[in-house]
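Entry type: protein chain
Record version: 2
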Amino acid sequence: IKIKHRLEKRALKKKKEKDEKRNKIIDEFNKVINNLKAGAEGFKTVGCFDLEFWEQDMNKILEFGWKIEDFSGKSKTTHLIIRDNIECENGFYSKNNRFSRTDSEIVSLEVAKRRFQTEFLGKFDILVGHALSNDFRVLKLNDMDCEQPYYDTADISTALMKKDNKMSLDKLLIHYNVSY
């Protein structure tokens, strides 16, 4: 009976710690959303980026996409298709997510890296992205880094779901009433 009681007590303590961590993540992100909506100092511009890379070699970037949203009404979106890896297509392990935009540019990897560093990095107050860990890994593999504070919406979605499930980015945006 004592062992059962100790195990129950440990399980309750672990659940309480997990709930506190989840609530802290949600509270922190709610503050970010409120500061963005209010245009508070340090929350006037948001940077978002996504990389598509070849599923068979993370070192081969297929596309760079980024946006800087300035809540005073200005925003800049860039989408670059990497000429060096244009023959690589996903579809074996992951969906082929090649974007077809009217404003896409086809450039070399070196040009894309230079533009990412000069046009994106350091040009915003906060970085928000979805499941950024792979994007950060691919940046490092390509001799780049994004050492800025960030909010990963995948972490937020996990906290909101209260399980190990994750909410898709579009469902998360709907939850927070953010248009996209």
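Comment: Helices lie at 2-38, 109-120, 132-141, 153-161, 169-175.
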